[in-house]
Amino acid sequence: xxxxxxxxxxxxxxxxxxxxxxxxxxxxxxxxxxxxxxxxxxxxxxxxxxxxxxxxxxxxxxxxxxxxxxxxxxxxxxxxxxxxxxxxxxxxxxxxxxxxxxxxxxxxxxxxxxxxxxxxxxxxxxxxxxxxxxxxxxxxxxxxxxxxxxxx
Length: 152
Description:
The protein is an alpha+beta fold. The chain is 35% helix and 16% strand.
């Protein structure tokens, strides 16, 4: 599927499920990693993750398009377009859009370089960056932290 086919599909979904035309652009954006798509507030354009389409298929991508169209139409009508807004939740339920995007497998793995432990309660903390153990303490019991392991 290319950008022109995606544009046509989005326009059809907008007319069929929302009853309003989609008057802006929708494109694939291969740089998206953790989300199925996004609605751009300033330009009113929509970007869709092509990896989401490749991994989960057309039905899942249609759910994502409906989700982004909910943001689009509600924002243009100056109604609640954010995820926590009642208007958004109701419209998403009404059109059958997906609330969450299935994992695309492109998330970057966070590498643990330092492991700290509380000397009082034993609570472990994995960190990417080094912390000053004289300044910070245990969040559970306020005990002293000590460096247990370093992978640097």
